[in-house]
Amino acid sequence: MSAHESSREGYDFAHPLPLPLLFGVFVALTVLTVITVAQASFDFGSYDILIVMVIATIKALLVGAFFMHLAFDKPFNILCFVASFVFVALFISFTLFDNHATNMDDIPVLDDAVVVAAPEGA
Amino acid sequence: MATTDAGHPTDAHGHSDSAHGHDGHGDHDHDHPSYLAHHFDTPEQQFDSGKLGMWLFLVTEILFFSGMFCAYAIFRAWRPEVFEGCSQFLNTKLGAINTGVLLFSSLTMAWAVRCAQLEQHKQCACLIATTLSCAMVFLGVKAIEYSHKWTMGLLPAGLYSYDPANPHPVGGPNYLAYICAPFAAATVGVLIWLIISYLRGAKFQFAVAKPLLVVCLSFFGGVGLGTILESGGDDSEHGSVHVAQHDDHQHGDHQHGGEQHGGEQHDGEHSAEHTPAHAEPAVATLPAAGAMVDDSNDLAVLKRLASDATNTGLQGELKALEAQDKMSGGAITYDDSDDSSATIAASKDNVLRPSRAGVFFSIYYCMTGVHAIHILAGIGVLIWLLVRTMRNDFNRNYFGPVDYIGLYWHLVDLIWIYLFPLMYLIR
């Protein structure tokens, strides 16, 4: 390729990640996966979901920052990606607020498994 | 800016043809390499535009998946015990293996991007083929998981037909064969293509078909891996489920015992079962409690038959009728400590009730299925990428497609990172 003068603007912009970094991230992700699986055998009560989500988020950050190259990317791309998670958080948290406000309106369960229910007044 | 020469520092590099015909379309001169679309000034601009587009696409993907995560959050908030109970049916081993496989494929993909940037074409093609193979292994393991659940009747709401007493019904269709059929067809197709291209001497096609055959075969490798792990994990998995159910029953019995009067524990249950058949006469006549008045001759016959010591079934029925009669006469129901019948409130919720467990499996199949569709789409674009890489299309100024597909692949991995603990690791 003749257009490969190194000093040209707009050319040779590639930023290959060093292999040790890639392998390091992979090892970290594997270790975190093992930790996630291992913690499932302990009972942390209601902190369970919190621990699991924190570990998953650390893994997501590792994947995002290095595999997806976000740590070296344009700020606008990072903004787009992070903003999407903000909106997801809004979406889910507001739906759950609504859900808690009306959680007495359970979905009626009508199926044959409920055999022991005696009819009213029988 | 796009149609001017503003971004071209061409003069500084001594290009004499600064008045090149770049405004006229299609004239790819020395300054505009073939890989650079004519509406871009520099490869970097081209790369950044494509990358922004890819990020926006990934944002829509995240929002798309968030709908399903939201459904998950709502149903889990409603019925945490159903999620806990049904999660026991998901094989953690298979899920963990799949997580590892996907993480490894992410590594090879990120590595492939690096190779594309460094123009290591051969290595790049190998890494893309490895990524593809990992995707196929993932699907193979998934096929085992799905077919195993379908055979057990662990299906979405409406189709859910799991019976704890008969968890492995025989005579159902061989779901695994159905899932494997398209992959087997693809494998045979690639094999035929490989042979034809070899015989015709089409070197490039032959070179592409070789890794693709390996990729197709790794699906069956995944199936084998899944089979081994599934059979190994079978006992512990289902053992725990059965134990859980047993606990449920015991619990239920204890509750009944506590709420009803001592020895009538079982009678209460029986009476409830027989209520539809025998309730009418007892209510209509309202005799003294325990008198057991019956218009028809049925009761007398029943009593006579029950007097035979071997006829335990009828004895039980008679006992039940007595208890029911007492209750209908108001003997027990006035007691505040008794709730007069084994109502839904008294019995412990069974998490395997079809409508509830079915909702869990609806969510499970929806989320993992859409994720698997994304894997399939990823396989499609990765094959395209493999062909282009083997054609040496990419160089250090044009590696956009590798990078974008890499981003997509990492996003699919990212979604699985959240799916795995949320589905498989509920305690």
Q: What percent of residues of chain A are in strands?
A: under 5%
| Distance between the ends of chain B | 59 Å
| H/E element sequence of chain A | HHH
Shape of chain B: elongated
* Corresponding CATH architecture of the largest domain in chain B: Up-down Bundle
Assigned CATH superfamily of the largest domain in chain B: Cytochrome c oxidase, subunit III, four-helix bundle
Q: Which structural class matches the secondary elements of chain B?
A: mainly alpha
How far the N terminus sits from the C terminus of chain A, by CA atoms, comes to 90 Å
Number of domains of chain A: 2
Discrete helix count of chain B: 11
What letter string, H or E per element, gives the SSE order of chain B?
HHHHHHHHHHH
Radius of gyration of chain A: 25 Å
Helix-and-strand structural type of chain A: mainly alpha
- CATH class bucket of the largest domain in chain B: Mainly Alpha
Mean pLDDT over all positions of chain B: 78
Largest interface: A-B, 74 and 80 residues
CATH topology of the largest domain in chain B: Four Helix Bundle (Hemerythrin (Met), subunit A)
Largest sheet of chain A: none
